[in-house]
Fold this sequence. Notes:
- By secondary structure, the chain is of the alpha+beta class.
- A hairpin with a 2-residue loop joins strand 5 and strand 6 (562-566).
- It is globular and about 110 Å long.
- The two termini are 24 Å apart.
- It binds zinc ion.
- Residues 747, 750, 844-845 line the site of zinc ion.
Amino acid sequence: xxxxxxxxxxxxxxxxxxxxxxxxxxxxxxxxxxxxxxxxxxxxxxxxxxxxxxxxxxxxxxxxxxxxxxxxxxxxxxxxxxxxxxxxxxxxxxxxxxxxxxxxxxxxxxxxxxxxxxxxxxxxxxxxxxxxxxxxxxxxxxxxxxxxxxxxxxxxxxxxxxxxxxxxxxxxxxxxxxxxxxxxxxxxxxxxxxxxxxxxxxxxxxxxxxxxxxxxxxxxxxxxxxxxxxxxxxxxxxxxxxxxxxxxxxxxxxxxxxxxxxxxxxxxxxxxxxxxxxxxxxxxxxxxxxxxxxxxxxxxxxxxxxxxxxxxxxxxxxxxxxxxxxxxxxxxxxxxxxxxxxxxxxxxxxxxxxxxxxxxxxxxxxxxxxxxxxxxxxxxxxxxxxxxxxxxxxxxxxxxxxxxxxxxxxxxxxxxxxxxxxxxxxxxxxxxxxxxxxxxxxxxxxxxxxxxxxxxxxxxxxxxxxxxxxxxxxxxxxxxxxxxxxxxxxxxxxxxxxxxxxxxxxxxxxxxxxxxxxxxxxxxxxxxxxxxxxxxxxxxxxxxxxxxxxxxxxxxxxxxxxxxxxxxxxxxxxxxxxxxxxxxxxxxxxxxxxxxxxxxxxxxxxxxxxxxxxxxxxxxxxxxxxxxxxxxxxxxxxxxxxxxxxxxxxxxxxxxxxxxxxxxxxxxxxxxxxxxxxxxxxxxxxxxxxxxxxxxxxxxxxxxxxxxxxxxxxxxxxxxxxxxxxxxxxxxxxxxxxxxxxxxxxxxxxxxxxxxxxxxxxxxxxxxxxxxxxxxxxxxxxxxxxxxxxxxxxxxxxxxxxxxxxxxxxxxxxxxxxxxxxxxxxxxxxxxxxxxxxxxxxxxxxxxxxxxxxxxxxxxxxxxxxxxxxxxxxxxxxxxxxxxxxxxxxxxxxxxxxxxxxxxxxxxxxxxxxxxxxxxxxxxxxxxxxxxxxxxxxxxxxxxxxxxxxxxxxxxxxxxxxxxxxxxxxxxxxxxxxxxxxxxxxxxxxxxxxxxxxxxxxxxxxxxxxxxxxxxxxxxxxxxxxxxxxxxxxxxxxxxxxxxxxxxxxxxxxxxxxxxxxxxxxxxxxxxxxxxxxxxxxxxxxxxxxx
Length: 1091
Ligand SMILES: [Zn+2]
């Protein structure tokens, strides 16, 4: 084919192809291609101009046609078949020009059309000759690196084409030519995206060849050196290569190189090199052997020292993060200082020999962190939509009941309002107040006389009496002062705590110091739940947690004012640590004490987003300020280096660190994850509520639903209005009131749920007009604590059988999960007597999100969200499930409708919400999620939630229930809450997935297993581009070779030269161009390609 014809036809196709595949914004680059074509052919090309105008300007929406798609293929096949250098260069230049503008879409289009294969074939063709032509090879390698970088199968394709070892060979023969070296290295780096290719290169000495290209500090050929480090790093993506690099001692080599570059690069010209070395080390320490080598070669000390210098310089901040990651990753794993990973509290379950948790999790070596990191990665990347239930039958049809009907009659006693003889019952109702006899006239009396408590709905004496009946595993004999004395919300609101910049960095460095300066570390156990004989030093803090809801297993003094705290796992289990509640004393005022809770399990926490723990001071309380307050500074939450004591589980632990400066010396203070609310507090509260209501107006009845595993009673409370009279009409109205069932605190660590429930109960018993209306409209059945044993024993998630009770609803075991079994039984009972509740809501706490929101159940939304093919058009669904959340969005300041969702997940199929919806047919079946932190919207935006806001939420939830009543008698009440308007057809909001974390990524990396933090503008593409535009560190011999021509060309470079020519055209074909004034690429670069 004649050259002119070839170029013309290629370019015609090319323009068409690219116009078809690219957006109109690429017009400028198309113009350049046309100019290039004219340039190649030496004439103007009216035909191309015509095509260009016709196809590009007049028909901007045209998509690639058959003929156009064949155009690129012609271009690519010509590249593989054409023999002459000039044509090949022309094609490469056209391709390069087209790829250097626009988006990655062009590259992906080219890959789809076989671009990678064509480039590889050309590489093999030109690279295999005895004396390879680098005029072609260098642009070819550049292009291949660019395209291959985006081609996920490039490694395999390169192996098939035989290009892998060829490139390695080219590299071996060009060690002295920096440009050639860099080009080969980029391609090798790209090939290593495939494990087998990386291994192939490793097996053929690739590691050694490339390692030798990384010199001591120099200012020459920096781009080639960086390319070598990056290629070396890319090779370390496989276990075999890491192993080989470690065994060859390259870790110490890399450390030595880093130290060398760090100490000599005083002008900070090689930051990118230093960064690349750190990334290389991060990869090399992916294996246990790598980390060991890093440790034994003094890597931690070196990086600790270099990081100190980097911290002082603004330029070097980008080196701090990878240094920190590397140190954290390589710090040796330290077993938790406990004798057993099992909870200090064990409970002998009925009918089982011993701890089920042990037998369920077979022994795993803790030295499997590589696999563990992968597991975590997979879990994080899970496509959560897979979890949505798409089986229409499972969504629509209830399963068979879990028990025979005969067993349900026992629950009739919990509906006394249906068969109630009000007069007689009133007389009987006075039992149960004898508990007060249990309290002794002791110090309590004197305290109360002197300080006077006076907290509404709280009575310390009653609390004592009730608590004495509470059964705990350790048989608590001491009350925590705040529970006994009571809590009043502090005046005003507490804003979220601002996060100090780089606070985590500072804390981690302090932790690393422990490893480096072991002499400074005290490591003295000052509290041990399992060792009451422990002797405490007189000047250390004292800790205590053996009281209801208390959780602290061990406290270790690390430095003078720093303590490591270890939480007790859930009873009969070795996990679920999060909740804490303990007493601390013997402090000195105005000294900042650092506390580290070192065995947290959740992968992130609101403690990274402005949340503070809560503190209660006895001295303050006795001075008339009995407040739980948010407190603590320097708070952050990050992954640490502790591992389980016995290595039974593959566990990652996180540190919650905070600093407390106590106001008083010699005070007794309490610290907790969140405002505590004990079982005894609930029982005392119910008694007070019962006494507070007017029995002539309010029907309030507390009964025992069942006994828990430990023998505590699980209360069920009925609240409704007494009938106005005993006439048939009024009794009939009472007996036809719809039911509303509310539950909470199935998860013991979610004390916020109890505070919200406290608000609900107090409101429902109040004289408020809306409360009266609600009592007249509904019968409320409240089971305020579904997991009393867990709450009492300070567990976070489970019951005494180490099971999450909110995953037992499908088939609850009557012996092991009695509270769930009987709550469900009671709901079944309501169902079969035709009194299915109109609303069911289970109150919870959410540890990772702000605001309050509801999860509900909708078939349609679940199917839509899952992208299911099921036709939902004919599917009828009552949208009434949205009324309550929509109403709450308007009337409850902490509530956010945008956080709600109504999706049915398979993983949640055994939760209260889903089971009550599906099996009992309750349309409005909800989980209420309450933040531990605060709000990011509404009038409380930026504030942390207090107990008052929790209680307010409980009250607002009651308000919202007015929206579901159709009883005209109480419609007037709606006017009391003027915000409520009843629009049942609101489907405007899109729901989102409830698993999503709504927080932005944390400012500092919580994990340390991630990849190397990237350096801005330092990716492969920009390296290649900038290399093409740079001559400063080019090969010496190239410089000499072309110095003459360089002079000659300098004049051209001053004129505005098309970038196409700058890149790839040999000098003899160059002509000054008038195009692209915006091009900044330097022409001089083109010199080295001269023949
Ligand atoms: Zn929960």
